[in-house]
Structure to design on (95 residues):
C-alpha cells in the first residue's frame, strides 16, 4: 500500500473521528447519566415523565416500573425509562 492510498482514506477517517467525538460519545454519556438517575429513584422523589406529567414516586415496584402519584389518590404505573427529570430528591433515611 502506498502513500496515495492512505491519503485517500484519511478524510474518511477524520470524518468518522469527528462524528465520534461530536455525536456518539456525548450521546453515550447522556444515556449513562439517565440510567444512573433512573436507578437512583426512591419513594418520595418528585419526577417529570416524558409525557410532561409531574408526580411523586409512591412505590418502586421492580427494576423497570414505578408507581407515581399525580394527585391525591391518583396513582399511575410508569416505566422507569420514561422518567425525563427528577425535580427533587428525598434524603435517604438514616438507619
Amino acid at each position: 500500500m502506498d502513500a496515495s492510498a492512505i491519503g485517500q482514506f484519511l478524510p474518511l477517517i477524520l470524518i468518522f473521528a469527528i462524528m465520534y467525538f461530536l455525536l456518539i460519545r456525548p450521546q453515550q454519556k447522556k444515556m449513562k447519566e439517565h440510567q444512573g438517575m433512573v436507578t437512583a429513584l426512591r419513594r418520595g422523589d418528585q419526577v417529570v415523565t416524558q409525557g410532561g406529567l409531574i408526580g411523586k414516586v409512591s412505590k418502586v415496584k421492580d427494576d423497570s416500573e414505578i408507581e407515581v402519584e399525580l394527585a391525591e389518590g391518583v396513582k399511575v404505573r410508569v416505566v422507569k425509562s420514561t422518567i425525563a427529570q427528577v425535580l427533587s430528591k428525598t434524603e435517604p433515611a438514616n438507619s
Remarks:
- Residues 41 and 60 are 8 Å apart (CA to CA).
